Task: inverse folding
């Protein structure tokens, strides 16, 4: 795993590292929206030749045939371990480009330059990568770490409110499991300000603070067998809600599902006597201010329970969840019964 970056900017990294060939795997929208950034950073010079692999970003393109096309390009242009992949885009790009980097010639170096808030606080860090496989989300993948992750907040200006909120749910989650002081600051902003004011508060410094919480957990448990699982807070119910929507062929962005997951899992933590009621109320107030909490009818509830029982984090048929014991303190491996989850939706 890498130590903290000695480079302040992508430009200084590229100048100092002197890779002769760089493949920029990029969201094709970013090439249009941030043409100047691309021109400044990725122009051929005497040391480095840049190649581009633009991808139309949708979940349906995050799959093996796209990885194969990228691997073909790496081979055609004679890339090897001395060359670099740069992933320029959100989580779809870093998942796909990171996976190609991991498998090509048993691993070549790559860096992530996330362009979404979700990428900056979550997807670009932690080394998990992969693509969808048949109907399995992230069904193929590996754990392979980027050399560096560069946070360039200028990308956030072109992000829609919907995409921004998608990432903000993960940011709230990470503060909830790891930094009470940050969470109380976020609470003040969410409850007291408009969305555009809130967006302007989320500076590079806040983003790095959140990324550091994730990276701290990853460093302690790179293979996701223990404390790293705290990052799954909100995700057991969140993932099940996403599967429910996939089945109904309706859309529920990941972050919105996680926000609803945080709402319900906070309720669960209180009912289990783990989290104080007043803390639960504060968390739920913040979530409800920004996100709709889906109400489920009887048949949706039973499908949700079905998906929760299929969760890959379950052990020997038992559901194990990551919850919070107080604001700023995540816990993992909490056994939960089906009856406890069912009761959440009944009352
Ligand atoms: N590996 C991990 O640890 C991890 C963690 C969380 C999510 N993910 C994965 O990340 C993916 C979702 O990624 P995401 O939400 O970051 O975004 P994304 O890559 O799906 O992009 C979402 C949309 O935003 C657009 N976009 C990206 N940057 C933009 C910008 N600066 N301005 C305007 N539009 C922009 C894209 O073109 C796309 O339309 C999912 O596939 C998920 O599985 C991975």
Result:
């Amino acid at each position: 795993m890498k130590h903290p970056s000695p480079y302040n900017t992508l430009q200084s990294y590229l100048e100092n590292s002197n890779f002769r060939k760089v493949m920029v795997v990029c969201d094709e929208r970013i090439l249009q929206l941030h043409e100047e950034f691309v021109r400044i950073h990725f122009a051929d010079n005497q040391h480095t030749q840049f190649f581009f692999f633009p991808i139309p970003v949708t979940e349906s393109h995050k799959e093996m045939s796209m990885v194969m096309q990228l691997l073909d390009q790496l081979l055609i242009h004679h890339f090897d371990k001395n060359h670099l992949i740069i992933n320029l885009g959100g989580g779809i790009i870093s998942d796909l480009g990171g996976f190609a980097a991991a498998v090509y010639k048993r691993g070549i170096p790559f860096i992530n330059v996330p362009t979404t808030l979700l990428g900056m606080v979550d997807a670009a860090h932690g080394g998990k990568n992969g693509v969808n496989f048949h109907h399995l989300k992230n069904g193929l993948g590996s754990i392979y770490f980027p050399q560096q992750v560069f946070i360039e907040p200028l990308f956030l200006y072109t992000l829609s409110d919907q995409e921004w909120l998608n990432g903000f749910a993960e940011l709230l989650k990470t503060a909830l499991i790891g930094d009470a002081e940050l969470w109380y600051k976020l609470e003040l902003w969410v409850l007291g300000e408009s969305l555009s004011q809130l967006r302007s508060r989320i500076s590079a410094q806040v983003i790095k603070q959140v990324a550091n919480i994730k990276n701290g957990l990853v460093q302690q448990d790179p293979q996701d067998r223990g404390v790293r699982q705290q990052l799954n807070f909100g995700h057991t119910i969140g993932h099940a809600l996403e599967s429910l929507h996939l089945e109904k062929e309706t859309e529920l962005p990941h972050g919105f599902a996680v926000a609803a997951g945080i709402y319900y899992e906070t309720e669960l933590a209180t009912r289990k006597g783990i989290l104080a009621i007043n803390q639960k109320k504060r968390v739920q107030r913040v979530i409800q201010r920004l996100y709709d909490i889906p109400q489920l009818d009887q048949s949706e509830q039973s499908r949700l329970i079905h998906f929760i029982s299929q969760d890959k984090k379950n052990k020997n048929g038992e559901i194990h969840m990551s919850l919070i014991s107080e604001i700023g303190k995540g816990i993992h491996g909490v056994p939960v019964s089906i009856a406890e989850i069912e009761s959440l939706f009944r009352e």
About this structure: Residues 1-5 have pLDDT under 50 and may be disordered. The longest strand covers residues 136-143. The radius of gyration is 20 Å.
